[in-house]
Specification:
8 helices; single chain; about 280 residues; disordered C terminus; Rossmann fold; globular; alpha/beta; 10 strands; 8-stranded mixed β-sheet; about 40% helix; 2 domains
Length: about 280
């Protein structure tokens, strides 16, 4: 199988990329190939980064799309993992490269991971929706037919490429609270890994993500408690989640998102970096 996650438009709160990075580390996946970024990125829009090696040598880190391989523990299946960044240009060529490699390696199932911003509270497990275009796959995995219409990202184009190649594919999306959109969400990553484990009938050890999710929830709760308007808004979301809705006067979602993101960034700097597992 091939499991993919792309940073960018398809990765609200970095939920998908955190999940895929976690799987690569947990499964001890080995990197075996990458896609040359030269033909697929506008480097003025997605700029390479300069870093220091041993505090002396300067190194250029280019936008990265890399393939990893690992056996899936507890199953008789192997997984390819594609961890990367949504490209800026030539999407059809980009997805053709991926589908051609998948064909060469005998991929029988593709699962894409995504995360999107939604009106959900940070105090509840992240909801996950799953869809597939192949009716048999919908039935076998207990998913839903894809009914989305509107703008799409590289994930949507990739599904179309595999449909044309005759390879079944499924898509999993976790919801991330929009009021902490820039803070990495281990809770969304945890929800994706759990749902993926159900689909693959594999036991994925998510204890590290569970601990990170608790820390994440505590940080956001602390931020929420410091502002009465924000606390009222989150309480409303919790009530909606339980189907008990009482109308209240809510502040602007954009205002809340900006304020909480600023709070979490400041806290992150005070603590010397983000908490939770590295991707």
């Amino acid at each position: 199988m091939l499991i993919t996650a792309f940073r960018g438009w398809n990765d609200g709160g970095q939920g998908a990329s955190l999940a895929a990075g976690f799987l690569a580390r947990t499964w001890h996946a080995a990197r075996f190939a990458d896609i040359d970024p030269e033909e697929f990125f506008d480097f003025q829009a997605t700029r390479p980064h300069v870093s220091l090696v041993d505090g002396v040598t300067r190194q250029i880190d280019w936008p990265d799309n890399a393939f990893y391989h690992a056996p899936v523990p507890g199953t008789d299946r192997d997984a390819l993992l594609l961890l990367g960044i949504e490209p800026n240009v030539r999407w059809r060529t980009f997805t053709t490269l991926i589908s051609d490699l998948a064909s060469d390696l005998g991929v029988e199932l593709v699962v894409t991971l995504g995360s999107l911003l939604a009106d959900v509270p940070h105090t509840r497990p992240s909801p996950v929706t799953g869809s597939a275009s192949d009716p048999e796959l919908v039935r076998r995995l207990g998913l839903e037919p894809s009914r989305y219409e509107g703008p799409t990202g590289i994930v949507g184009v990739l599904h179309d490429a595999f449909k044309n190649a005759g390879v079944p594919s499924a898509s999993l999306w976790a919801a991330v609270p929009h009021y902490v959109s820039l803070a990495p969400s281990p809770r969304a990553a945890l929800a994706l890994c759990r749902r993926l484990g159900e689909l693959l009938e594999a036991d994925i050890d998510t204890s590290e993500l569970e601990e990170a999710s608790e820390s994440y929830s505590q940080q956001v709760t602390e931020a929420v408690a410091g502002d009465p308007e924000t606390a009222a808004y989150v309480e409303e979301l919790e009530q909606r989640a339980e189907d008990v809705v009482e109308p209240v006067d809510l502040p602007s979602g954009d205002a809340i998102a900006a304020e909480l993101t600023r709070f979490l960034r400041d806290r992150e700097r005070e603590n010397g970096g983000p908490e939770g597992p590295a991707a």
